[in-house]
Amino acid sequence: MKLIQVSLALITLAMIMTFASPVLGQTNATSAYWFQQGLAFYNQDNFSASLDAYNKALELDQRDSEAWNNKGIDLGILGKYSDAIRAFENAVALNDSYAEAWYNMGVIYDLKGDYYTAVQAYKMATQINPSYQKALVNRNYDTDRLMAHSLSCSCQDQLTLV
Hints:
By secondary structure, this protein is an all-alpha fold. It has two domains: 28-95, Serine Threonine Protein Phosphatase 5, Tetratricopeptide repeat (Alpha Horseshoe), CATH 1.25.40; 105-154 and 158-162. Helix content is 73%, strand content 0%. It has eight helices and no strands. It has helices at residues 2-20, 31-43, 47-60, 65-77, 81-94, 99-111, 115-128, 133-151. Helix 3 (47-60) runs antiparallel to helix 4. 30% of the residues are buried.
């Protein structure tokens, strides 16, 4: 009888742990789980929660270039431009043919007013994907912006351009 009670108690405990574990903090959550959570929060315009989820995904898998890219997007939206650039740099360090990460890096450099470096990032994106329309448009726009400055002054440092 005592053995049956102990067995039932262990089975009950196992069932509680099985069903309570997901609710109590996702102790067995994977990087993919947190990545999906990040996407869900992003789609709800909850960028801080999205960023937290991508950070958890990256704690579990530092080599996930998409998580680094998405973390950079959230950081950019939150106005943390330097941190966003570092996240995009990590993404392209892991996958140097990641055109979207190069493009996103260009957007952040644009927001910082660093048009020359933005053009370089857009250039990388368009070299990887020559039909990447947004990157082509932004690259051309920034190039025109830089050329207008260069051509409108009698500066010693005329730009050798892109």
